[in-house]
Amino acid sequence: MFTADMKEKFKNKIKISGIHHDILEGLVNYAYTSQIEITKRNVQSLLEAADLLQFLSVKKACEQFLVRHLDIDNCIGMHSFAEFHNFYGQYSQKKVNHFM
């Protein structure tokens, strides 16, 4: 978007819809520091934004976080979230199926 000959390359301000400013700020900081805080509160939004903006290492870290926190109480919600966003690694799918 910013390096190809797209209109965003020539603008001073770009509106990125659908990403909360805290999540975007975290990803920008990650680009400079290689550190990001993943919490139960931000993991889903962070995963969606990382996928959209192609932060593959952050996306993978979020997926691993979700798998580590998967339990009997949240497995159906996690399954729905993963299915809706097509976030299914082979290991995480097996773990979700274990609870269902």
TrEMBL record:
It comes from the Eukaryota. InterPro entries: BTB/POZ_dom, SKP1/BTB/POZ_sf. Gene3D superfamilies: Potassium Channel Kv1.1, Chain A. Keywords: Kelch repeat, Repeat. Transmembrane segments: none annotated. Pfam families: BTB (PF00651). Residues 1-69 form the BTB domain. This is KLHL23. It comes from Cervus elaphus hippelaphus. The lineage of its organism: Eukaryota, Metazoa, Chordata, Craniata, Vertebrata.
